[in-house]
Fold these 2 entries.
Entry 1:
Amino acid sequence: MSRHEKPKLRHLNTEEKGEEIKKHAEGETHREIADELGISKSTCQRIVSSFENERKIHEAPRPGRPKKLSQSDRRFVRLLAMQEPHATIAEIATASRVPNGLWKTGLD
């Protein structure tokens, strides 16, 4: 990939990040490594810097949006659905008293 081509956006797995850190330790530049792996130079710098500062390769899990139904509520909704296989989602929602998030339980 030439310098003027825009690199593809992709995530590196742990093995690839380890390979990148090893190559940098052996003296390859961020640009050379980035071109080989098909990532941007700044991504390469961020991964190496993160390893040098924090001694970690794995990214912290992202929190994301909390689930609308608790694990217990999901089990209860599934139980109701199995007991009444022809019930509509509206009927199950009314019976379970947990209407929010019902569509995300896999029952629709």
Entry 2:
Amino acid sequence: MAKKQYKEEKDPLHRGRFQAQGKSLEESVKWERNTPLTVKEGKRLLNKLRDKLTNSDLKIRESAFSKQNLNIDRIFKNGGIDIGKMRKNYSKSFEPGIKERVDIEIFLGKAFIRQE
């Protein structure tokens, strides 16, 4: 029996998620789509994650959200990111010894490109 080819029409070509993690929190917002995630949509999804947190969880991660906004801008200014078949790219926002963080995980495809 032949192995399933990854690029079937129904499989989204661009996937990833924003995730807030910590000692007592794991919340995320994901994207699965057939078109690359634009920088504008990426920032909207990051804000959607921010809106899901309580005030106390948000306060702990305020600098992490700021850091990830800057990471999105940096990636955009460099032409976006294309994971191809590398499988996963992480951008973690935590400082050594601190578990409360906000991550960007890009599983497949392109992200933070210019709106076309």
